[in-house]
């Protein structure tokens, strides 16, 4: 046979990139996961606050050099508890550190949980951004025939 079959090739202009929506950074995880993360954040913050209030080892003298002072303070106020847990999520930490074994256990569990969640989010975000770049609007001749935005036809004098 004198014919050579090279298959079908289609040449078209890449579509222009659209600006991503404002909250596209939330897409790597589902809405339920974000809801549960927020619930876990609130729960751990409140639990840490209550546990620090109940533990005697969290109450310390704010001025350790003044031995005559009988006033003790707890560094885990409600706002500080929320700040401590959000700092863990953002991997920033804080100057507030748990002293009691009970609060250290809660903090270390929360740190491990945030490590897993941040790793999952980062991996999903990388996959999400890579998959967006690799998508093409036309994969076959049938896709070309189904759409109406790209004009197509034969070149005059071509085969």
Structural description of this entry:
Belongs to the glutamate-gated ion channel (TC 1.A.10.1) family. InterPro entries: Iono_Glu_rcpt_met (IPR001508), Ionotropic_Glu_rcpt (IPR015683), Iontro_rcpt_C (IPR001320). It is a multi-pass membrane protein. It is found in: Postsynaptic cell membrane. This protein has 159 residues and is mainly α. It has helices at 31-54, 78-89, 101-134, 141-146, and strands at 59-60, 73-74. The protein has a two-stranded antiparallel sheet. α1 (31-54) runs antiparallel to α3. The chain is rod-shaped and about 100 Å long. The chain starts with 30 loop residues before the first helix and ends in a 13-residue tail after the last helix.
């Amino acid at each position: 046979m004198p014919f050579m079959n090279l298959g079908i090739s289609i040449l078209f202009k890449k579509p222009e990139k659209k600006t991503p929506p404002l909250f596209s950074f939330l897409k790597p995880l589902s809405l339920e996961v974000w809801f549960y993360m927020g619930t876990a954040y609130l729960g751990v913050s409140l639990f840490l606050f209550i546990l620090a209030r109940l533990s005697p080892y969290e109450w310390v003298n704010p001025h350790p050099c003044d031995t005559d002072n009988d006033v003790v303070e707890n560094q885990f106020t409600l706002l500080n508890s929320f700040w401590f847990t959000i700092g863990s999520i953002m991997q920033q930490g804080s100057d507030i550190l748990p002293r009691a074994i009970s609060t250290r256990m809660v903090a270390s569990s929360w740190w491990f949980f945030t490590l897993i969640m941040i790793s999952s989010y980062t991996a999903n975000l990388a996959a999400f951004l890579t998959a967006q770049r690799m998508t093409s609007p036309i994969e076959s001749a049938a896709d070309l025939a189904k759409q109406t935005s790209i004009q197509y036809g034969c070149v005059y004098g071509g085969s």
